[in-house]
Amino acid sequence: MALTDALYSIWARRVTGGEAFQSGLIAAGLIMFNSLAAVLYVSDPSLIPAAMIGAFVGTWFAVRKDK
Prior knowledge:
Blueprint (H helix, E strand, L loop, with lengths): L1 H15 L3 H23 L5 H18 L2
Helix pairs in contact: 1-2, 1-3
């Protein structure tokens, strides 16, 4: 999950920067990782708090790294 959030943060920055090709590649990766995450988490809802922590960590790291 942290990977999808990191990718989303980078994607948003690329979109606002007008970088269409990179944005498109990242969007394709987001679909792939989000689909995988959905399939894995449906079987065990107790993993949702871990996903929430991953969301924070992935987003924080990506924003700090992509300055």
